[in-house]
Amino acid sequence: MKKWVYAFADGDGKDKTLLGGKGANLCEMTQIGLNVPPGFVITTEACLHYLDSADQQMPAEVMEQVREEMARVEKATGKRFGDPQNPLLVSVRSGSAMSMPGMMDTILNLGLNNETLQGEIEQTGDARFGYDAYRRFIQLFGKVAMGVSDELFDAEFEAVKQAARVTEDVGLSAEDLQEISERFLSVFEQNTGRPFPQDPYEQIEIAIKAVFNSWMGKRAVDYRREFNITPQMANGTAVNICTMVFGNRGDDSATGVAFTRNPGTGENRLFGEYLVNAQGEDVVAGIRTPKPIDKLDQEMPEMARQLAELRDRLENHYKEVQDFEFTIEKGTLYCLQTRNGKMNATAMVRSSVDMVHEKLISKKQGLLRINPDHLEQMLYPRLDTNVRVDPVAQGLPASPGAAVGQAVFDADRAEQLGKDMSMKVILVREETKPEDIHGFFAAQGILTSRGGKTSHAAVVARGMGKPCVAGAEGIRVDVARREAYVGDHVIKEGDLITIDGSNGNVYFGEIDTVEPEFTNELNQLLKWADNKSYLRVMANADTPEDAERALKFGAKGIGLCRTERMFNAVERLPIVIEMIVADSLEERQAALDKLLPIQRADFRKLFETMAPLPVTIRLLDPPIHEFLPTENQLEDEIENLRHLKNSVRGLDVLASSMLLLKEMNTEGEAIPDIVDINLVEKAIETKEMMLRKVRALTEVNPMLGHRGVRLGITYPEIYRMQIRAILEAEAECAAKDLEVHPQMMVPQVCSAEELKWVRRYVDEIKAEVEADTGHKLNCRFGTMIEVVRACMRADSLAKQAEFFSFGTNDLTQATFSFSREDAENKFLPMYNQNLILRDNPFEVLDSKGVGKLMKLALQWGREVKPDMSFGICGEHGGHPASIEFCHQAGLNYVSCSGPRVPVARLAAAHAALNNS
Amino acid sequence: MKKWVYAFADGDGKDKTLLGGKGANLCEMTQIGLNVPPGFVITTEACLHYLDSADQQMPAEVMEQVREEMARVEKATGKRFGDPQNPLLVSVRSGSAMSMPGMMDTILNLGLNNETLQGEIEQTGDARFGYDAYRRFIQLFGKVAMGVSDELFDAEFEAVKQAARVTEDVGLSAEDLQEISERFLSVFEQNTGRPFPQDPYEQIEIAIKAVFNSWMGKRAVDYRREFNITPQMANGTAVNICTMVFGNRGDDSATGVAFTRNPGTGENRLFGEYLVNAQGEDVVAGIRTPKPIDKLDQEMPEMARQLAELRDRLENHYKEVQDFEFTIEKGTLYCLQTRNGKMNATAMVRSSVDMVHEKLISKKQGLLRINPDHLEQMLYPRLDTNVRVDPVAQGLPASPGAAVGQAVFDADRAEQLGKDMSMKVILVREETKPEDIHGFFAAQGILTSRGGKTSHAAVVARGMGKPCVAGAEGIRVDVARREAYVGDHVIKEGDLITIDGSNGNVYFGEIDTVEPEFTNELNQLLKWADNKSYLRVMANADTPEDAERALKFGAKGIGLCRTERMFNAVERLPIVIEMIVADSLEERQAALDKLLPIQRADFRKLFETMAPLPVTIRLLDPPIHEFLPTENQLEDEIENLRHLKNSVRGLDVLASSMLLLKEMNTEGEAIPDIVDINLVEKAIETKEMMLRKVRALTEVNPMLGHRGVRLGITYPEIYRMQIRAILEAEAECAAKDLEVHPQMMVPQVCSAEELKWVRRYVDEIKAEVEADTGHKLNCRFGTMIEVVRACMRADSLAKQAEFFSFGTNDLTQATFSFSREDAENKFLPMYNQNLILRDNPFEVLDSKGVGKLMKLALQWGREVKPDMSFGICGEHGGHPASIEFCHQAGLNYVSCSGPRVPVARLAAAHAALNNS
Question: Measured between alpha carbons, how far is A404 from A495 in angstroms, rounded to an integer?
Fold first, then answer.
């Protein structure tokens, strides 16, 4: 005979498929010796069998086995199901292999009827308790098993309350509750067309069928469709029948919930609360204030001792912090439920380290129980979760972390207030440009009303580790008036605002933030992680400050230094523009000669900061027109200047300058003392020249344009300057006997010839620098793999390079033919929503497309050079799933933004532990 | 003893490595029985041996063998080398395995000295001949073997001419020439420090060494480096020693050149010219006018008979039209040289077909001897090559063929003159836009001053098969003045100009053009080609007219119909714009409802034209903003309208409209009778609305933007309309019992989910149309493979598609991360020049990168669906090298523009024949 029903003492605690999650859990708890009220599970197979049957008949065997198991429960409890003297009451719960919230409510107190009720009252000596239990059972059974509307019961309940003139339920007497029970029985009969079943076995059979039927109910079916729960994941529901225990049986009874450790701090100490003489739902309802668990020591010392024992047993068995429910019925402690405790990152880290030290878990377990992404919480300031305020606008979460400050609307003002006057400011702009960079340095955070996650503001803020909300379209900025508008509201300069770059929210006023904490425990944990990892975690860092931060986060080198960030600094940009607009090689060289010592110093500082770790410098990548103002900007400026010129010409010079002085003041521009028409004309000329250059450099598809190595080959003097700066910086370090490991890499490469070409510059300049300084240089030479063709030609590129670094941002764009900025604004959300693409490939590495290409490149590259070092320095380098892919594919390192380094270190350990 | 020297009668005619090209050729000619003057070849091995020797000594054996072979020549000719009575004279020529023009000049008449000269004079009875031969020998030997400057000899020559008071060389007497010979001997002695060598064997040894040394001379080394000639291709030079024969020995002597067939027409008849009593160089010098070869019949009938025999022997042996040189010395016909004749495409085609019919060659040989690219000559009008005029400007060869017409500067005027008045016009524009399309139809050709090979003008002209020169930057167009400027020149409307779209040249005035000819022979040849091919050649065609032309060119179906071309037609564009700017689904649907019958009629006509061949329709591909005016255009229009509004407001309405009437007239715009301010305001509103839409649709990288299937999924109503139009058109054909084979394909696909999505539309609409019409529909469903990820996911895409068509234009852009428009303007020319990339990958399929991807896609696709049909419909589909790649990779078809179809058909045959 098939076994359809398992006692908690018999079922396999691992077999969630058969017993459901809850059922398996109750079996496991019982079998490890916890005092679980006795009970049994009816299997999911019984459910499927029932649903498949033509006439929806329960197999006769099922009810037979229910009776057998009930007999065992009766023996264990000394009560009898349906016994008018000492009745056994049970709860009936659904439970499938996957947790599916709200599938079917629990029925409590099943087994009560007009007769057993009296037995229960006699046994407890508490009529009020008895009637209260009965009326609850009738309502739950009516609603859950028979579909009688709650409202019908509630109306009767209210009527009795009114008649009794009480406002709170606790004010109702035993008689009132008896009255309610009787009315409920009538409601039941009127609405089901049958009297309330008095036979407990009839009750239980109806309840079991109701649970089974609920599996195919609309709510459950919709839920499974919505969350893609397949029959492989959960098929049918089990039914859990469990003896009722009551915490409201007097002062020797209680009920409570607890964590085995503090879920806020991770401290190794029981954490929770309880109520004496109460039911579980009283704790939840919040009518009475529960006591902290510490008090139990005084109130019920024996129970407190047993609870401590329970706590140890739970952790010893589950090797995880437990969140459990208990009930004390007349001096007996029962454990009703337990599950892994949900904790914040700080608590997770601390408890991991503690549990390893306590030898409760291994280091591997300690690492694997923490989701790497959650670490990020610990590394950015975040809004205090206790504060609940509605955001006034929402943009894209462009750079994580929260910031509070006074709103300012241009970079100069940000610098003035933020740097010079040490005030906290938030830079609010329509969008930002390279010339706003000093404003970034001075601000706590950035808020823009236009642009996406790859906008200038987003990229720069992420690089600096400052919070940024980008593209908050509800906000209009009026720089001239020093105001911004959100709906009907005005934000004036100086008004406090708060932004949360982790979710894109913008708030008026100051919201408390919680500062990040890089704890000793975190350091300890990440050291263990590093020991388990195969992948080396490096950081993307563009400045010595970035590098210092990266070191603090435990980066093992710099995997990507974007030299264009150095070009964008406010005092350098004019020289860079000079270089770009140069008409002759001589002019360009003159500008480059000014940049050389600046870049050399940049690189030297980076090398010094990181010594002896490697520093990987990418030669100039973006198209040069990115450093120039836009066509529209220049056209506006020229128009303004022409206007100025005409005014100057038409009026007396002084008068006009006074006039302009006023006009310009409203725009917050610098004011010349006297307007010299010659200067104006010269300015017009310069701007027009720049406009011509901008137009000449305009590209249809800049992403696929004249950039990277293509620029380095057509304007060799630019790359030669950078290569010289790197090598001279290395030589300067060598002169100080500092061990440094510089690496340079070439972006946008598609053929080996390009690498050869650049390599020739390197060889030649290296020979010169070595001859000039007398130091042997060791700078390594590598290439980005970010063009699809570079993957295809990895074999031939491998002959020219000492290392490969996958640039998965660009590679993803080219592989999908998606321009990130266009895609994320126009169709990608719709694609993700409709599961045409499951993930945003710019956030989660697309292993089936981009990843497949990478694997081919790895294979072909290593065929030529088996020990070739492969890395990744796209944004994917900081994302756990992508890191796991990198580990599996056989990469050597990942490089990501500084604050993602801890996340990546843990993810790298996970990857190694899960794939060994 | 090693053999260093081979008689013409002994050497292996195929061993160019050993004997050089010329030497091997002379051996072959001799051995097939042609009357070649006797001689021998000194091998390239002797050359290398000599150059390797420490002291540059000729191996003694070499000169020994030269003497032996000379003895055989003496025996054959009855003359003796150095014989004062009857001297043997020889020529000495270099000759390596590869033809290397100008490596070393020939030395003629070697063997003459003061003594043998007298013998020669006695033998010929012609003192003038003798001294002329001697002075030539001295100069050539002096210059070529000893490096004495030509100028020194020429000065003496001129001095004697002046003294003799003659202007032409022929005026010189025997005595003058004797004087010259003596002066030349002195020049030689003065400049070499030694007397002119009198021993013929000393002469020949010096000459041989000079030839050997020339192999390492600067000119030769540079040439080999420049053209990448490796030692594997040619190593060392041979020396050819050949008996001198003279066509200037009297009226029974002559010299000439001939083709075995007419190189202009291919006619099977000897074609050439000759001069009686003349030397070869006289024919070249053009002093005397040679006679057509026909005349020889009358002048020397026996010689004419022998020449006809020679011609047969040549063609029978070489199986190719020969271009040969002959000399008749005193009634004996010698053949001095022969090579394959260079002919135009028409002649190549005709001679191939004739030679096959004559059973001289096989069909395979007949096909393989014609370079497919050359066929293009026959398919476009071309400039008469006899006319030599300098171009006034040059642009990009954007669409091949030549055209002559009156310059017009806007599309309306082009239509007016070209269509309504049937004049030939060339549309000259800065750049063209979709709204110019009616001008294209009316014009003979298009000339633009901006844009590249993928500009609107280029793409549309190529599609129409009209000549186009694009981006001729030297030309400025002033539409308002109806003039264009090239340097100082003005082109006024109506001025005749000529453009050559095959090379990008622009000419003033009318240059004669030669019309294309699709001859019977070409048809015959291409039929043979089709029989040998594996690849099926289809055409890209967007209209029924295109389709008819494609049929004429022998296309076996349409591989790509770009529906956006249909959208661009002048009467449809407004409806398309209506659809794009629609704010609601209803408005958009209303516009689509207007487009549906138009598209359905388009498709039906295409199907009818091509029935029963397949017609492949690509669903809408470009981003929709391409159909809208640009931001700048709209801004200008709005400004103009505002200006108009202000004028109207400020002045009396009628007066202002008169004013505007004048203003607008200069711009050639339509003139309203009365300007209604309400209409103007409404127009402003409309334009502003459109401007907002244009801005909203703007993309950073349109190539990677919201287009193709991404559009089809986000605006399903557009694709649904097109799918319905295709299926209803099929049903209409079915109703007429016409067998048609429509195919639809989806552009820009990157994942199988996208295909599933579109397939759902198809299945649903197909069921509807079938139900409505009662006809079973068979339209096939396929996908473009033009996104890199589509290649990576070919296995999963194969499950959703019935055929794959590689879009190599887009695939190349994505694989290289090159935007074609940007690359071709900015860095690609430099890349090609410096061999960083050998070819422009947009013209020649990049087999190592793009091709490798394609092969992976083929492999993975066929693993899932072994009989999957693969094609290519990028521009590469019409290029022979790419077609060979497609054949090797295992594609099933190529599709290219109509006029490339014949080229592709021949190339497909070549691919099959060369790879079987």
Answer: 10
- What is the identity of the amino acid at B419? K
Contact predicate A526/A905, CB 8 Å: yes
HSE on the CB side for B491, CA within 13 Å? 31
Beta strands (DSSP E) in B77-116 are 90-96, 107-110
ipTM over 0.85: no
Amino acid letter, B845? L
B-chain residue closest to A819, CA distance: B704
Interface test with A, best of B788, B809, B810, B847 (most A CBs within 10 A): B788
Q: Report how far residue B49's alpha carbon sits from residue A265's, in angstroms, rounded to the nearest whole number.
A: 89
Q: How far is the alpha carbon of B706 from chain A, nearest alpha carbon, in Å? A: 7
- Interface test mutation site (partner B, options A789, A796, A839, max chain B beta carbons within 10 A): A789
| A827 contacts on B by Cβ (under 8 Å) | 706, 710, 713-714
Parallel, antiparallel, or unpaired: how do β-strands A780-785 and A741-746 relate? parallel
All residues of chain A having their beta carbon less than 8 Å from the beta carbon of residue B834 are 713, 757
A424 to A307, A495, A893, B241: CA distances (angstroms): 50, 11, 37, 95
Question: Is B768 within 8 Å of B723 (Cβ atoms)?
Answer: no
Give catalytic status of residue B561 as yes or no: no
| Nearest Cα residue in chain B from A714 | B827
pLDDT for B400: 83
Residue partners of B287: CB distance under 8 A and separation at least 6: B168, B170
Contact B714 A830 (CB under 8 A): yes
Residue B217 has pLDDT above 90, yes or no: no
Is the CB of residue A699 less than 8 Å away from at least one CB of chain B?
Answer: yes
How confident is the model at residue B437, as a pLDDT? 80
What's the pLDDT tens digit per position in B132-174?
A: 999 999 999 999 899 899 899 999 999 999 999 988 777 889 9
pLDDT digits (tens, 9 = 90+) for A370-391: 999 888 878 888 888 777 788 9
pLDDT tens track for A134-172? 999 999 999 989 989 989 999 999 999 999 998 888 788
Which of B786, B820, B822 should one mutate to test binding to chain A, selecting the residue with the greatest count of A CBs within 10 A? B822
Told to judge if B489 belongs to the known catalytic residues of this protein, a careful annotator would answer no
Cross-chain Cβ contact A701/B702 below 8 Å: yes
Residue pLDDT, tens place only, B615-673: 999 999 988 888 888 888 888 888 888 887 776 665 444 444 444 544 444 444 444 44
